[in-house]
Amino acid sequence: MKYMTAEPFRIKVVEKLKKSTKKERLEYLKTAQYNAFRLKAENVYVDCLTDSGTSAMSNEQWSALMLGDESYAGCKSFYKLEKSAQDVFGMPYIQPTHQGRAADYIMAQIYAKKGFYAIGNMHFDTFRGNAEMLGALAVDYVINEGAKANDQYHPFKGNIDLNKMQSLIDEKGKENISVVIITVTCNNNGGQPVSMQNIREVSTLAKKHDIPVVIDSARLAENAYFIQQREEGYKNTPIKEITREMFSYCETATMSAKKDGMVNMGGLFITRNKEVFEVANQLAIAHEGFITYGGLSGRDLEALAVGLQEGCEESYLEYRTNQVKYLGDRLKEFGVPIIEPTGGHGVYVDGRKFFPQIPQSEFPSQRLVVALYEEAGVRAVELGACAFGSKDPETGAPIWPELETMRIAISRRVYTNSHMDVIANALGDIYKNREKYKGMKLVYEGKITSLRHFTAGFELL
Ligand SMILES: *Cc1c(COP(=O)(O)O)cnc(C)c1O
To answer: Which structural domains are found in the chain, ordered by start?
Structure first.
């Protein structure tokens, strides 16, 4: 009876979508230099570029907007948000920010240090960027099962490898590690969850060596739902009890509220450490806005206060993860190689296995993004050779990443399973004809390699 669960909501407002012809799409692609980020959204039929800031708000969120208190200091809306966030995180001190990366900036200022290591499962780009600009050494210690795009089953592919962490402590000394950051779910390798046991053990090991633990919690509710479904001992535990336990093991958390916060804009910096909070407050005043609004309007604070609660509803999370699984299952019927099990916010297609004839130097996953848009007007995103590729600092020789995927991100409460079918059928067709595809050449990449995918230009080979 699993698939008898449909959307736990009905549709009250609709937004029209434009359909285009293949001929038109070929033109749009040429103009965009074959980079999905450079397409106009109005020319996209089903937009799976990202799940960030694309959620549909509920009628309760829309009506909460009218209650927005736009006072500069001490606005009513802040106290509602504070109460809602305390309920979900179980931590006392809440600093709003305009979006997640602003919280990452504050986090890096406090926890990242020049020449010190920052251990993560897989650091998300915005924290990594902020930390590396300060001279920190960000290392990714996700378990081996999670490090490669593969179909090897592991229920928690976002877990941190405790042995790797211990080795770094032994080799470099605990005094050279400034922070451990657990990203839940782990975005970069498929929205893969981290188990409660792993969070607990990482925290115990870090505490033993006086290293603070922080959680990058954009998808905290999806992570909590996977813990409830997959980890022993949590089957009957309510979601918010699980989230509060997750955060009981860390000192501080950041959140991009554009994901499980169910809003289009917003972020949070949350801590249990009063001194850390006071530093964060002053950084926020300098960069974001006063403590009680942090770069957001009162109405945004209201929508987030409601959204945080809705994101933790079990019926919603069941629908959410089942929709992602539905797309994954449809793709598997066509033989399309994906990362399994499917994670929280999207399906990740294995670019290497899809196009084995295209080497990483010719961007197989990017080629797939282009093919999918060309065939069906569906926009996905490359997380592979372009996004994660780097260069040897001395020779400039390209370094190709372990992960080579195309991510199909699913927006929250936005698309139906009929849209999922459009995506699956199109990819199924492309897979049938996969031999006829050739690679791509990178013709523009800008100065900062780690950010090149946003503005890159390509040619078809
Ligand atoms: C999206 C995201 C961020 C950055 O948040 P923005 O709101 O886009 O600035 C940070 N960490 C993770 C894990 C994210 O998914």
So the answer is: 22-51+314-460 (3.90.1150.10), 59-310 (3.40.640.10)
